[in-house]
Amino acid sequence: PNGPALRAIGTTAAEFERDLVSNLYFERGTTMESASAQDVYQSLAVTVRDRLVDRRARTATAHQAANPRCVYYLSAEYMLGRQLRQNLQYTGTEEVARDVLKGLGVSLDEIADFDVEPSLGNGGLGRLAACLLDALATADIPAVGYGIRYDLGLFRQAIVDGAQVERPDDWAFDGSPWEFPQQDDRQAVGFYGRVEVEAGRRRWIPEETVLGEPSHMLVPGYGTQTVNIVRLWRARADSDAFNLADFAAGRSAEAVQEVLRSENISKVLYPADSTEFGRELRLKQQYFLVSCSLWDIVRRFHLRNSDWTVFADKTVIQLNDTHPALAVPELMRLLVDEYELDWDTAWSITRRTFAYTCHTLLPEALETWPVALFERLLPRHLEIVYAINQTHLDEVESRFPGDGDLRRRLSLIQEEPERRIRMAHLAVVGSHAVNGVAELHSRLLAETTLADFARLWPERFRNVTNGVSPRRFLRLANPRLAALISERLGGEGWLTDLDQLRGLAALAGDSEFQRRWRVVKRDNKLDLAAYVRAATGVVLDPDALCDVHVKRFHEYKRQLLKLLHVITLHDRLRADPGADVPRTVVFAGKAAPSYHAVKRIIQLINGVAKVVNADPAVAGRLTVVFLPDYNVTRAELIVPAADLSEQISLAGKEASGTGNMKLALNGAVTVGTLDGANIELRDRVGADNFFLFGVDAACAAEVRRGDYRPGEIAGSDPELAAALAAIADGRYGAGFGDVLDTLLGRDEYLTLADYRAYLDAQDAAAAAWRDPARWTAMSIRNTAHCGFFSADRTVADYRDRIWHADPVPVPPR
Ligand code: 26Y
């Protein structure tokens, strides 16, 4: 491709400026003199994007020629983060852009603030998907991420009177320059209807059809020419769906009813499932994603191949949790009903094609769908699920004859209290590989949650510990630290070979290096403080210990344990101002809209923050802030400023965690339990550089089985009793009796059991902080030993253990 792409690949200031001004003129229809800041942002984004388009074209050409095995990642969520700075970085045009804009009288930093983070995910699983795509492209592995282009995505979190309020996040309201829409590639998706038999073959005749309209965003690799894509589907109604007659008769709402019904499918991420409407919508979303994506995967296969027998050699489909598990019966339907392969051949292809990543241990988090709903929406898929189950249970019977109980446990169908389809079972049965996301998690999956399957097919189970993108979470989020590291390591090689950070360990005790390390942290804290002040009015001290608990709200993550610590500190400091080091506690995270118990915890945090921040007795010693609307952009601000990373989930509950990795990579020291990837983190950074506390997973399970009495713990620990009493007597706001009741009643997540050990760990952290040389050495060692947690290593593990996909280098122009 030597044609029009030539226009937009230059990286000199003159070329960049020419393209920027030309985009402003031809794309926005304006000139520098009359352009708004939004015009400049859009033109800049397109100018940068165009420099990736040429790489994308060459990538597609190279993939077409190599006909390689491709990785297709199916995920309900992607948390891509802002794109502008990333793409400036990956095209090496940041400095040029800055200079050109400056020459035009505009500041890059101001313009960059117009960049909007796509709201397409909710937490760890979504960000993991984005980190893996980044690392796949960086490793030159041909890959496509498939997802849904939610109009409103996850809600935007506002705090009103201390409580979470959900607002729609209309992330593409001003137009997203990173998207390439492809209206002409629309794909029809069926729902409902019936199964007909024609010449001995069963065929689904859907009753309703919705169109899937794709768009894609570019996923560039770092330091390579590869640009992969993430392809997102948006639901559209056929233009005939608009009822002209109704409209003509003045019934405008009725006129658009069908259009809205179709387009609701990609309206929001995880619609509330408290109503039948919501539950059906979620299942529709899942099938919508799967149907569009498989159609596209098959189409891509046929661009380069004609023989189904090689499908599984050319295709691996990774299921990001069970949300896309309908892909298993959908591929079977395509192969058997549409392409008329025999069942056994189709089943062998299907199993060899899929791999499944599980992200939970909590049995209550394993998805199931009522058979009745499934049958109504996807009648042919239900038949296929039943047929898969039949073969599966026959295999179980032949391997373990007469074990009816085992058959019941392994079945794809749960019988009681109502018949439901177990999506995790469907995913395991339909895949050749099943992985957990940290060593402990994978072990516990095989021992507990999926134990029967691990006994049946031990060879399918493996571990792939999560990782994070060092480009996103160190280079982009923390440019000051990245610059210091590059200076000392003599280059940026560490960005794609993170083990090189080990070279910093020798500098851990170097006082000049320590001083510079502290300056970076302090500057990052000043940036955070400026944002916090503007967003909340709270003033932060850049010299205080910055102690952060940032992640989704869930009871198992124990934000409440952190809050009990804060309350105890408040009490202690009122009696003795020297009882703790000056400390800023930052909370951030969203609660699921229907998860009442944790929304109450958010309210209590805000109640505590209000009282503590207004108490002159602790001024300058303790500050508490709840930063609203946690997302990738907010993480990029908080993570580089953190000194202490709170990873305090109840052992055995957090599958992996990835915030733990991002924070340690940025030199935060962890206070944490033996849960998820914390264990591997502690092994690597060293027990001396990690504040460990709490029961382990085995002990937690034992306590839960026994006769645990949280009330007795509260009664025998005066500081804990005082903290609970402070909540009860309304010091932080009246009416938090419900929060106390869950603690003193069942205390499901052993918050009280771990309270004392947690305070001791915090006291140890404070003692370390009092010795800056000691603390800084710990901080440096955390960064130095985080190489393992690069998403590049994670992708290499997936490649070697599951995908067996070879890199396809893309030649430079
Ligand atoms: C509503 C339901 C279908 C559902 C929606 C989202 C269920 C689960 C999820 C998301 C789960 C999630 O984000 N899990 C996290 O995945 C991370 C990446 O593997 C882990 O690090 C983290 O421990 C786990 O909680």
TrEMBL record:
Its cofactor is pyridoxal 5'-phosphate. It catalyses: [(1->4)-alpha-D-glucosyl](n) + phosphate = [(1->4)-alpha-D-glucosyl](n-1) + alpha-D-glucose 1-phosphate. Its EC number is 2.4.1.1. GO terms for biological process: glycogen catabolic process. GO terms for cellular component: cytoplasm. Belongs to the glycogen phosphorylase family. InterPro entries: Glycg_phsphrylas, Glyco_trans_35, Pyridoxal_P_attach_site. The modification N6-(pyridoxal phosphate)lysine is found at K662. GO terms for molecular function: glycogen phosphorylase activity; pyridoxal phosphate binding. PROSITE patterns: PHOSPHORYLASE (PS00102). This is Alpha-1,4 glucan phosphorylase. It is an enzyme of class 2 (transferase). It comes from the Bacteria. Keywords: Carbohydrate metabolism, Glycosyltransferase, Pyridoxal phosphate, Transferase. The keyword Membrane does not apply. Phosphorylase is an important allosteric enzyme in carbohydrate metabolism. Enzymes from different sources differ in their regulatory mechanisms and in their natural substrates. However, all known phosphorylases share catalytic and structural properties. Allosteric enzyme that catalyzes the rate-limiting step in glycogen catabolism, the phosphorolytic cleavage of glycogen to produce glucose-1-phosphate, and plays a central role in maintaining cellular and organismal glucose homeostasis. It holds the Pfam family Phosphorylase. The keyword Kinase does not apply.
